Amino acid sequence: MRHLALLLLLIPLAGCATLSEDQCRAADWQAIGRQDGSNGRTPDYIEKHARACNQYGVAPVRSEWEKGRQQDLPLYCRPARAWEEGADGRRLSPVCPAKDLPQLERANFRGLTYHRIGQDISEAEREIGRINAALSGLPADAPDRAALISERASLRLDIAMSRAERALYRY
């Protein structure tokens, strides 16, 4: 448990720099650009790498990075990836060609809807957990018991309907 707590404390620190000192010093900027392209990074993302590497006296090679980014942007600009971004609760990054946007935006919207319905299901499940905890503390003849049981049944029905609806938004 202590290791988990320590890891949770370090996660915000890891988010401050895009690259470590070793990564900056041994950087293959084209490979880093390919990775960033496949993740839908915008052209200004190299500034984050520059800030991360500046403290080690290393500057990114923008032309190599951009060459790699452009090479792997098509991996990001696919309907399946647009849906995945949405399913993870993210909007599509504005890096894809205009001609592909209608299809990609539809896929992203489907993923976002899938994500939202999943959040609704999780909230209803948490509410059922709260109701179950409240019921366990009530005597069998408590007047509030019937209302809680009815609310729980309604939530279960909502969850079943939401799961059916969510299935319509799978990719």
Helix-strand layout with pairing:
Elements: H1 2-14, H2 21-25, H3 29-38, H4 46-54, H5 62-76, H6 79-87, H7 101-136, H8 145-167
Helix pairs in contact: 3-5, 6-7, 7-8
Cα distance spanning the termini: 37 Å
How many domains make up the coordinates? 2
Largest sheet: none
Helix content range of the residues, please? Answer: over 70%
The H-and-E topology, N to C, reads as HHHHHHHH
Backbone CA Rg = 23 Å
Beta content: under 5%
- Counting DSSP H or I runs of 4 or more residues, the number of helices is 8
Explain the overall architecture:
By secondary structure, the chain is mainly α. It folds into two domains: 21-76, no CATH class; 78-171. The chain has eight helices and no strands. The protein has helices spanning 2-14, 21-25, 29-38, 46-54, 62-76, 79-87, 101-136, 145-167. It is elongated. Mean pLDDT is 91; it is low at 1-15.
Which features would summarize this protein structure in a list?
171 residues; 8 helices; mainly alpha; disordered N terminus; 2 domains; 0% strand
Quick summary of this structure?
This protein is mainly alpha-helical and 171 residues long. It has helices spanning 2-14, 21-25, 29-38, 46-54, 62-76, 79-87, 101-136, 145-167. The model is unreliable at 1-15 (pLDDT under 50).
